[in-house]
Queue: 3 jobs
Job 1
Amino acid sequence: KDDGSKFWATYKKVSTEYDNDFLARANDDMGIILTFAGLFSAVNSTFIVGMQPNPGDTTNALLLQLIQIAVNGTNSVPDISALSSSTGVPSSMVWMQTLAYASLAFSVLAAFGAVLGKQW
């Protein structure tokens, strides 16, 4: 064999080892990212659920109105203007929920990218 074929044989051997090592490290990194994104999404979803307004408050207010109608009769209908579908959430709560939903979206996007990277 001449020097040129030895060079290319050595190059192929070294580059194959490097590529295999690189792909193994990338695959391990993608697995770590996927695990972290899944755990973060689970914790973040728990906080999002905890920040939601309590639907029991609206139900209790409506039940109180029904009881007042039943006790006072149908002639004296209570004022229902105090009831609203929105309870006036503070702007800080809106910002916290916006950031929580944005971080959840980015976490799911990172997990999606990791799955695509592992399947490639």
Job 2
Amino acid sequence: MSGRHRGKAKRGGGHYRNVKSNHNCARSFAQQENELASGSGSDSESSEEGAGKDELGQPPEFVVAMWDLNHCDPKKCSGRKLARLGLISNLRLGQKFPGIVLSPVGQLCVSPLDRDVVSSSGVAVIDCSWAKLDETPFGRMRSPHPRLLPFLVAANPINYGKPCKLSCVEAIAATLFICGFPEEARWFLGKFSWGHAFLELNDKLLNAYAACKSSEEIVKVQNAYLEQEQKERDKPRDLRDFYPTSSSSEDES
């Protein structure tokens, strides 16, 4: 999140190309947020299968789909789990999708302006490996509405606490939340025992993005947020906050 123009995302680095501005700041923020839902990183497939018994949110009235490139371990892939549950449609390579597609070829960030497109035509994701982006045929997964995601922190067990490395279900939920479908976002995340942590980690950002009026405004909110986090990181710290003083020792005795 380096010396590139703000609002431009760099090629590679994830299924869902995020609009990034300051990588060091993002890493720092992710480390701080690790304290939330600390047990999430150890979730297994068996615990996931037990999630969602108490229904949260509401199911969507629009299509949610994915292109599955078979790069990922089916036992750990959130997209595969949604497919097994019959909650997501599979698309073929070369098949065009009319709705929002989260893809590295996008130039605009997803925003509330996309609500009508999602409502009428749905949203799709590309399920591929972070390590195989260079061999992923993004050109064969076409849409009139390719989009990027702004800065968010992953809560999935594989990339917990890492900026931008979202799983399929996290990318879907983020898109729905930003576009004004928070209950549908909760419904998808509710199928995973760790799903609630994604909303907790990103509560401030998701609500700020959802309040924006355009892609450009979302990028400004993101960049301002990351700059503030960087300033907090760069502040000198008083070592007296970390070590007991003589007076505090006397008080304790």
Job 3
Amino acid sequence: MDPPPHPHSLPPLPLPTSKLPLMCSYNGHITPCPHSNTLCYSVGETRIVAVDRRTTASTISAFTHHLSHTLYNNHPFHLKYQLPNEDLDSLVSVTTDEDLFNMLDGHDRILSSHAPSRIVPLPYPTRIPRVAVA
């Protein structure tokens, strides 16, 4: 027989589904808001990109390859994300499998809390060297 749960323990997280919809904002710029002392993301596009946790989101290389193909016509990019209730001057970089796991874990925790917030991935394209044509 299992012991009763501790009265202050958190309920277990629900098992995540294999498809994970992420709202990705891209091709925009972070600029100062004209009427406040905060930063805002402007002139970009936003898409919901569904990724499969077992394949596409299993490693950072698979995840970035999928986003590169979906959003940037196979051009490389850097991935950062905005935490809920944080300003755009404190973006979190995603460069390793552990970073990706932490981002997805945070996403799951927010969903299980039923809070009206979310993690927003922000891919930034790397500079593509221009080739001079003679």
